[in-house]
Give the backbone structure.
Amino acid sequence: MTQAAGIVLAGGRSSRMGSPKAALEWHGSTLLRRICGIVARGVDGPVVVVRAPGQDLPELPDDVHVVEDAREGRGPLQGISAGLHAVRDEAEAAYVSSTDVPLLHPRFVAAVLGALDGDTDVVLPQVGGHRHPLAAAYRTELADAVERLIAADRMKPAFLFEAARVKRLDAEALLADPALAALDPGLDSVLNLNARDDYEAARARPAPEVTVRRFGALRRLGDGLPDPALIRAATLGEAAAAAGLTLDEHVVAALNGDQITRDPQAPLAAGDAVSFLAADAGG
């Protein structure tokens, strides 16, 4: 059993947005693809997407598992229940995220999960005067308690918080994590997109600043780009293009020194380091 899984809720009517949030474009990818990738980097277990019955989803990595709500339109507690039941045999805890938080940082996920202890069932961020139940950590053993609340038609997360041991983290407590304070000082990780204007404003923000290096023969490419270079890129594909490269069978990337990938939609976050290597020459 791993320590933590990730649960991403993809359902919801998106009535104010006017179109499904999960499929909204984000730097050549989609919101759902981005959130799954970011959450995956903050956990050591599986990532599960919870969708409404019959809901179409954009393309996702093969290792992301999809489950369905038992019923549509019953709110986030229904999705949390489906997710907790899906992962409780594999993980002790789960970070639960909505789909519409494109500025989520992996360090935020890790910081919230890291606040779980033996006296806590839920770690609940409270930022900007709001509780964020869809940016929180839950013990997976809460699955049955959530199911009982749903059976009693007590569908608000607040009812779960009344029955569980909750640790609340305000901005000061979250930013006591020095890495999070450096990488997400404004706690934009909890900025969610409800309406089209929210999405357009967030999409217009500069992409995260990341460090790019090229090794071996790849150093000769890039139109004079220094090596290493600081660039703005929200995906691996954007970073490769900025470095004058194309991700194909000849080029691979090492993300932060360990994750090896050539997926152009792999999400990047502030502070990431991307190393490009020639796959057919050992770098």
